[in-house]
Design brief:
- By secondary structure, the protein is an alpha/beta fold.
- 32% of the residues lie in helices and 25% in strands.
- The chain is built from twelve helices and 15 strands.
- The strands form three sheets. Strands 3, 4, 5, 6, 7, 14 and 15 form a seven-stranded mixed β-sheet that branches. It has a six-stranded parallel β-sheet with strand order 10-9-8-11-12-13, with helices on both faces.
- Bound molecules: NADP nicotinamide-adenine-dinucleotide phosphate (NAP).
- The site of NADP nicotinamide-adenine-dinucleotide phosphate (NAP) has 31 residues, from helix 1, helix 4, helix 5 and helix 12.
């Protein structure tokens, strides 16, 4: 193992704020596990953390902060009371920030055995997007088999996970992608219909694919599609809101404050009286507030990892970057051009 390193953001801003710094050796407290990290996943939320716009990062950590929600590696040390995990075990896990590092120390319940089908890089890109997709579908939306479900950004990390889970749930899935090079990936992950909105107007195509409307729409675009996503619900229908990336710039790495404010004002507000008469539900969540929820994490990961073992879920397509090139990974993810997951490697 080389010298311990971590990525640190001292103050909010562009890609230059991602600094690689030495990390001190940490030891696990009671009930905790220290993992030597081989790879860590990059999520769009990490870019939002770096920009200084992620509420739970400010609430739980403040500045400086090491971003990163997920990792894969080997158990290096266990704290008192941890008896079911031994040093050397191959694991993956989630952490509320701090993942972009050579080591993480987390509570035992946030660490899971790595499935034999995954290498460390595939494992590192698995938990966040799949837990997000799992929570959206199986804790919130509960689509029935045959339900018509529209997934925005369907070739991205969470979008691709949603498509795979919808295939398991027996739903009819319509995946929306923003560029032609993403169509094949969305199809391969299980979309019954793919709409390439760079080539055809989104909503007429969405109406043709499900003339009666959608039982569920999953939207992390925010302002650019939220009003129409709601309008295209069946009755009853459920809109699951879990992100707002269309408010943020695709290049430059810094929020454009005037546009952000305008988009915030334009973001639809949902009125309970109208919701009742429209027979519509709007559901929303943020996974980073759920890390203490052992019931949610353990049940979700147990089901997800069982589907992996059965070959019913596959690892998303992964693009890897060395940890030192974290800024390139953020730049790529913010461009909106990536397919699947980006993962940082510690070798
Ligand atoms: N609530 C939660 O707990 C939770 C957890 C994880 C992720 N999320 C959210 O889920 C979304 C997807 O996250 P991810 O990590 O899996 O990323 P991703 O989907 O792999 O990448 C983001 C995708 O969003 C689309 N996009 C639309 N407008 C964009 C813009 N202005 N800038 C950049 N991308 C834009 C692009 O796809 P198309 O052009 O093909 O649409 C892009 O590829 C993000 O909004 C993230 O914050 C929420």
């Amino acid at each position: 193992m080389g010298p311990l390193r971590k990525v640190v953001v001292h103050r909010p801003g562009g890609h230059g704020q991602l600094r690689l710094e030495p990390q001190a050796l940490a030891h696990p407290g009671p009930g905790e596990v220290r993992v030597e990290v081989e790879a860590c996943g990059v999520n769009y939320a990490d870019c939002v953390v770096r920009m200084g716009l992620y509420a739970s990062a400010k609430q739980y950590v403040g500045w400086p902060i090491t971003p990163g929600f997920e990792f894969a590696g080997r158990v290096a040390e266990v704290g008192a009371g941890v008896e079911d995990l031994a040093p050397g075990a191959a694991v993956l896990g989630v952490t509320r920030f701090g993942g972009y590092a050579s080591q993480v120390v987390v509570p035992r319940h946030q660490v899971f055995s790595r499935p034999a089908r995954f290498d460390a890089v595939q494992a590192a890109g698995f938990p966040t997007v799949f837990l997000t997709a799992y929570f959206a579908l199986f804790e919130l939306a509960h689509p029935r088999p045959g339900a018509r479900v529209l997934v925005h950004s369907a070739a991205g990390g969470v979008g691709g996970a949603l498509l795979q889970l919808l295939r398991i749930a027996g739903c009819f899935s319509v995946g929306v992608v923003g560029a032609s090079h993403k169509v094949q990936s969305a199809r391969a992950l299980g979309a019954d219909v793919v709409i390439d909105k760079s080539h055809e107007p989104l909503w007429p195509a969405a109406e043709r694919a499900a003339p009666g409307g959608y039982d569920v729409v999953l939207d992390a675009n925010g302002v650019s599609t939220l009003a129409q996503s709601y309008r295209h619900l069946a009755k009853p229908g459920k809109l699951v809101v879990y992100g707002f990336h269309s408010m943020l710039p695709r290049e430059g790495g810094r929020p454009r404050w005037a546009r952000l404010a305008a988009d915030w004002l334009r973001t639809p507000r949902f009125n309970p009286l109208a919701l009742t008469n429209d027979n519509a539900s709007v559901l929303a969540f943020n996974l980073s507030y759920l890390f203490e929820r052992r019931d949610v994490l353990e049940e979700g990961m147990a089901r997800l990892l069982a589907w992996v073992e059965q070959g019913r879920l596959v690892a998303p397509p992964v693009t890897r970057y060395p940890l030192a090139q974290v800024a390139d990974a953020h730049r790529a993810l913010e461009s909106g051009r990536t397919v699947g997951k980006l993962v940082l490697t510690l070798d």
